[in-house]
Every structure is written in C-alpha cells, then in structure tokens.
Amino acid sequence: MTILLDGLRVLSHAATLVDGVDLELTPGTSTALVGASGAGKSLTCAALAGLLPPNLQVSGSLTVTDGQDDGAAPAGPNLLPIPAAQRPRGARIALVPQDPTPALHPLIPVGRQIEMACAADQGSRKGGDAEPLLARVGLEGLGDRVPARLSGGQRQRACLALALAGSPALLIADEPTTALDVIARAEILDLLASLTRAESAPALLLITHDLPAAATCQSMAVMAGGRIIEQGPTERLLTRPAHPATAAMRRAAADETLSSALAAVGAHQAACGACQSHHAEQPGAAA
Ligand SMILES: Nc1ncnc2c1ncn2[C@@H]1O[C@H](COP(=O)(O)OP(=O)(O)OP(=O)(O)O)[C@@H](O)[C@H]1O
C-alpha cells in the first residue's frame, strides 16, 4: 500500500499557502514533517486528513494504492476533495491533535468513546471492543475513566486509540508531545514508534518543531514557505543537511541545548561562588 500526495496546493483567495507538496508514505514507516512556524505543515496535514477549513481551495491529488507495491494495483480515487468522514474504509487518514482535551468527550468514559469509534468504523450500532486498542496504547484497565481522571499523556494515548479505531492507512500526529513533561514526551514518542512496528501498522507522519523528536522517525521532510525544501533519511538530514534552512534549524536546536546547558552551568557556578564566600566569612570556616 502507498499513500501518494502529488502537487498539493492550498490557496486562500490570491495567496498560495501550500505550493506543490509531494509526499510518498508507506504503512509501517515514519516520517517527520518539520519547519518553522507558518511553513504550511498544519495545512498540509489538514488537507491529507480531509479537514481543511471551507474558506481554502485545494488542488493536487491524494491516492491510496492498495495491494502489492509493484505498481500494478490501480490507484484509488483522488481523496483530496473528499471530507474525512466520507473517505472509503482502508483509505482513511487520521489526525491526532496537539491538544487531546477538546478531542475527547468530557463526560463519556474513554473506553466507551473508543467502542463508539470502533462501531462507527464497522457501521454497526453495537459498540466495538475497546480493550485491544486500550492495550495497544498502554491504557489497560483505564477504559472506565472520563478524560478528567487521566493525565495529559494518558489523554494523548486515548486520542491515539480513537484514531486507530478507524484502521487508518496513515496516522498524522500534530505536535503530540508539546503539552507533555519530558517523561510523558519520551513515552509517547516510544509508543508512536512501536505503533509503526505493529502488524498492519499505519504510516506515521509526525509534525514537530522538535528535532530530537523528529530524529525518532526514519525519514524527514522540511517545509519552508509552503514548499518541501528537503526530504530524505533523517540521519542524513540531521548530519549532512543540504539546504541552508535545514542546516540553520539544526544549528538552532544544537545552540538551544548548548546555551541552556551553559546558562545552567553559569547559574550553578554563581550559586557555588556565593555559597563559598558565605562559608569563608563564617567564623571557624576552613581556609
Ligand atoms: N484558515 C486559514 N485561512 C487563511 N490562511 C491560513 C489559514 N490557516 C493557516 N493559514 C496561513 O497559512 C500559512 C501556513 O499555516 P500553517 O498553520 O500550515 O503553518 P504551520 O507550519 O503549521 O505553523 P505552526 O508550526 O505555527 O503550526 C500561515 O501563513 C497561516 O497564516
């Protein structure tokens, strides 16, 4: 199976917001979509997921080709003009939002919400079984809790389970770790990586500003000004970026780490200096 986005353009009146984006995604692989604020990442993903606001015009094609990757299988219909809810089963593209709270019903236990999503996917009135999905995202035994009784990381896991209930060909995670502490962040990145290794795994597209998070993906696409300026294996882009904007992002990420470490060392030395002179002034302090 291959998910092929070809020549995506998104326009708002005369303004071109996304300008000729091509992506090829295969189930079981992970791709990070990175770029500065306003580069066009969210609009690209909204177009992929069939969730663009109605004030925007879209052109290009998005096809999900089923079967073997030998080019023999016919491509499906162009999904770009088809809204998310009307896309055919097996060609669905799920978007996990940055903030899980508004995406979950506040009064319904998350297990029930997942059952309803499974039932909707199967077109049945009976609830589906939430347990396998709860287990897949590490929420075993927590299905009877309403979202307010879950941590931020657990709510993000519940959103992932809801997205997986539709058996998507592609799972898009939009900055899924922004609101999380470092431990929950690492756990969600680990979970996303494990989802792509599972049997009948979807393709994963991770939108992020966070280059260390992008490094957990096999490949990376860098956006600027509505275009993809560079894409390829993550290891190559992070070690030998070809485009100056990718190199600048890499330097900024490295400087950020270095400057915060230096600031922390400086603060520590200042505190130690103050502490030592305080002790030296005390009667009986060792010289
Ligand atoms: N509904 C809309 N109508 C008109 N312009 C829009 C709309 N949504 C986004 N834009 C514009 O399109 C451009 C790309 O926006 P987009 O949200 O895709 O950027 P982004 O790369 O996801 O940024 P960020 O990382 O800050 O979320 C921006 O200039 C933005 O102002």
From TrEMBL:
Class in the EC hierarchy, top level: hydrolase
Domain annotation ABC transporter: ranges: 3-250
Signal sequence range: none
Recorded GO MF terms: ATP binding; ATP hydrolysis activity
Topology relative to the membrane: Peripheral membrane protein
Pfam families noted in UniProt: ABC_tran
Primary location group: membrane
EC number: 3.6.3.-
Record flagged with keyword Magnesium: no
Entry keyword annotation includes RNA-binding: no
Keywords in alphabetical order: ATP-binding, Cell inner membrane, Cell membrane, Hydrolase, Membrane, Nucleotide-binding, Translocase, Transport
GO cellular component term of the entry, any: plasma membrane
InterPro entries the UniProt entry points to: AAA+_ATPase (IPR003593), ABC_Ni/Peptide_Import (IPR050388), ABC_transporter-like_ATP-bd (IPR003439), ABC_transporter-like_CS (IPR017871), P-loop_NTPase (IPR027417)
Location of this chain's protein in the cell: Cell membrane
Family named by the database record: Belongs to the ABC transporter superfamily.
The name this protein goes by in its record: Glutathione import ATP-binding protein GsiA
Organism classification: Bacteria, Bacillati, Actinomycetota, Actinomycetes, Actinomycetales
Gene it is expressed from: gsiA_3
